[in-house]
Input
Amino acid sequence: MCEEPTGLQTVTIGVVLAGGEARRMGHDKRLLRLAGSTLLERNVSVLRAVFPRVVVSVRRDRPLPSTAPPGVEILFDELTGSPLAAIATALSRYQAPLFVLAADMAFATPSAIEKVLSAYSDVDVALPIVGQHLEPLHAVYGPRCLGPSRGLLAEGRHSILDLLPLVRVARVPFVESAPFLNVNTPSDWRAVRRLAEEEQARSGEEQTGEPLRDR
Output
């Protein structure tokens, strides 16, 4: 008996959701810099390491800045107001399973993405779960999600969590929450920067065998 293919074979498009308004942050989160790259650049780079086709989803009233990564495909949302609307637009456009990643996730990795992809088989959604917390903006959405998504949006319901009971879902357990950390507020950004600095310090110690503070 042949095994069902997984998302590692069937998902070829990665979509960065970059249309949020960033009300709580106060300025464009896509342009926040971490280790020399903007969050948008980092996430486009991560998706390019996994998928042959990378798309950036934006609102028409919030186009990509001039500093956006070159060569990305731009998709303007047909509907505005939520990530669910952006996902519905992308599913309508490409008629294929998509991996979706929020632009403000600071530490996404190819390995975490591939773990989610490996669970996408004979389901409509595959998404991480850390403890009891689901991560719907680091997930695969299949074409069968389009109809239910449109139905929810027509009712004025924009929560992705409302979609999940309507489709087949694979929940992928993760122990570490770091790959899913996102930036909604200035305090979130400070925490992300601290974590990045700590990781850089650990990396430096591993390379030299000495604590950085003693050198």
